[in-house]
Design a protein that fits this description.
By secondary structure, this protein is α+β, with helices and mostly antiparallel strands. The chain has a domain of about 40 residues. The protein is about 25% helix and about 10% strand. Helix 2 links the parallel strand 1 and strand 2. The radius of gyration is 20 Å and the shape is elongated. The N terminus is likely disordered.
């Protein structure tokens, strides 16, 4: 089974690739189908956590 995965994507589990990163689980699943080991995939979503970052209010804006 390992040989089949390596023929799909010869560099997927290469000793030269420590981690693969993607912005969504859809791409993660496609990488797994290509033979990338799940433990080598890190999902880092795009965007910002709006509960952590807020736009400045009128009272907090610096006046010039």
């Amino acid at each position: 089974m390992v040989e089949i995965m390596e023929t799909k994507c010869p560099i997927c589990n290469s000793k030269y690739v420590d981690i693969w990163h993607t912005s969504c689980n859809l791409t993660k699943n496609e990488l797994i189908k290509l033979g990338v080991l799940e433990k080598k995939i890190e999902v880092i979503p795009l965007g910002a956590d709006l509960n952590h970052f807020h736009s400045p209010s009128n009272n907090n804006e610096k006046k010039n």
